């Protein structure tokens, strides 16, 4: 709590400045900081969200950088060499006949193209039309497409139906990525993406994250799972020292290419 008297304009400016320094702010914490009621801060954040200044979240607000990403198509067209090298390093983790879960990530699209060339008789459970199409050239691969609400930004299905339908399956291996890797675990831009990734991880015997160096910056909006639920990370650069220590404590293997 501060001793100064905060005007509405000053509160808005301070909320935005705090969001420049951290991913999210909580209404209750900001009410204490400003020494005003929770309802006052809630009205502030609702008004700021209406004006497009912040993203409204459960119990608070987030800045746009951690709550959004380029489209999957745009992400697939950058860092192509890095993603292909990461995919090649991950290939030995897959045997002919395996059952895999793969989500809608750019590196998984590249990995799907490689699997289509190098493996046979796979069963791949995915919500991603891009991953399904990447695997389509191999007639021995069975793709189980998860239903749900179509998200054009990710070219994939999401929502409660997607997660519910997924529960009937289990897999040998989940291959996923994330918006950003933090000491707490992989993070993502929104709840729907996080929820599906979380379910895939829980329903797989092991999980490998395929991440490039662009995923080693600030965390995104929501933590997908603790690092202890990840088996291995394949990456093209060393994470921060803090993340490396967290990986060691969680017994997560790190494969650098």
Automatic annotation (TrEMBL):
InterPro entries: Carb_Metab_HTH_regulators (IPR050313), DeoR-like_C (IPR014036), DeoR_HTH (IPR001034), Tscrpt_reg_HTH_DeoR_CS (IPR018356). The keyword Ubl conjugation does not apply. Pfam families: DeoRC (PF00455), HTH_DeoR (PF08220). SMART domains: DeoRC, HTH_DEOR. It comes from the Bacteria. The keyword Chaperone does not apply. Residues 8-63 form the HTH deoR-type domain. Transmembrane segments: none annotated. One of its GO terms (molecular function) is DNA binding. Keywords: DNA-binding, Transcription, Transcription regulation. This is DeoR/GlpR family DNA-binding transcription regulator. It comes from Marinobacter salexigens. The lineage of its organism: Bacteria, Pseudomonadati, Pseudomonadota, Gammaproteobacteria, Pseudomonadales.
């Amino acid at each position: 709590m501060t001793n100064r008297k905060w005007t509405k304009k000053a509160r808005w400016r301070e909320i935005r400045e705090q969001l420049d320094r951290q991913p999210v702010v909580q209404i209750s914490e900001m009410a204490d900081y400003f020494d005003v009621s929770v309802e006052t801060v809630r009205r502030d954040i609702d008004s700021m969200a209406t004006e497009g200044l912040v993203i409204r979240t459960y119990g608070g607000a987030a800045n746009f950088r951690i709550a959004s990403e380029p489209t999957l198509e745009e992400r697939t067209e950058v860092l192509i060499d890095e993603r292909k090298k990461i995919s090649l390093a991950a290939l030995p983790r897959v045997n002919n006949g395996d059952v895999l879960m793969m989500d809608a990530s750019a590196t998984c699209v590249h990995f799907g193209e490689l699997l289509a060339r190098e493996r046979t008789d796979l069963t791949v459970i995915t919500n991603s039309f891009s991953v399904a199409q990447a695997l389509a050239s191999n007639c021995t691969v069975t793709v189980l497409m998860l239903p749900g609400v179509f998200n054009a930004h990710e070219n994939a299905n999401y929502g409660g139906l997607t997660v519910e339908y997924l529960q009937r399956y289990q897999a040998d291996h989940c291959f996923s990525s994330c918006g950003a890797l933090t000491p707490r675990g992989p993070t993502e831009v929104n709840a729907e993406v996080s929820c599906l990734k979380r379910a895939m991880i829980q329903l797989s015997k092991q999980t490998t994250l395929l991440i490039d160096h662009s995923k080693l910056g600030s965390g995104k909006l929501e933590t997908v799972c603790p690092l202890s639920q990840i088996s291995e990370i394949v990456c093209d650069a060393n994470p921060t020292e803090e993340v490396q220590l967290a990986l060691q404590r969680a017994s997560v293997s790190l494969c650098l290419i």
